[in-house]
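SEQUENCE AND FOLD
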Amino acid sequence: MDLTHFRMVVPPDLTQPVLDLLAPHDRVLNLVVVRAAHVPDGDAVECDVLTGAANGVLADLRGLGVDRTGSIAVDDVDMMFSERGERIAAGLPGALAHAPLWAAVEARVRKAGTYPSSSYLFLAIASLIGSVGIMTNSQILIVAAMVVGPEYHAITSVALGLDRRSRPRVREGTRALTAGFPLAIVVTFGFAALVRAFGLQSAAFERGLRPVSHLIDTPDFFSVVVAVLVAVLVAVLVAVLVAVGVVTLRLQRRVWRHAARRADAALSQR
């Protein structure tokens, strides 16, 4: 049973409309109200909602203005024992029982789309791991560098910004990419220079046994062609990933919304 917990501070004049909304809802459980005697913020209202219905409940609460004049906190419920809740969840189609809470999805993307110094540090570390993979001819380290790199957070943030028409989010994500990669290149170049200066490269690398980086350290006409094509492909790949992210976000919302409508219609006909 997938549940979402709502914890709200509601102005006294909105408490009754909120209760009128939540109390008759067949997918709202454990509704609790704590009336505030002398607290200016308002009354405390808590409830558990079957996750599939959480999108609609949150939209209705925001429609009442609870988020503007009060506050709404949302958490996942890891475990709850309730036979009534189990019966309600068992009687619902999958689209109504397991639909994601889109506000939470977007909140996670926004959180990952913040770029403290550690984000640029991780990107530099990923580049250093990749450089070690080249010097030691280790494909595993090359793959590890791809895993460590945080650039996908910026890409998904840009996709969300485009989907929501948020220029600041698009601008921040683009800036993170355009500033992070040059910084990683400079750090990696300095590291490679130090390795050469102190003679720390492996004997095989020194003898020219460099299958992973052969095309790079023995440049010729084909190396130039590959370098140009890779630069173009990387730019295209980032653009494609952003476009795919935008399309996926919109398509997922429509698919779940359509599935929920069909499931609701089927329930009403029972």
Summary: The chain is about 65% helix and 10% strand. The mean pLDDT is 79. The longest helix spans residues 221-268.
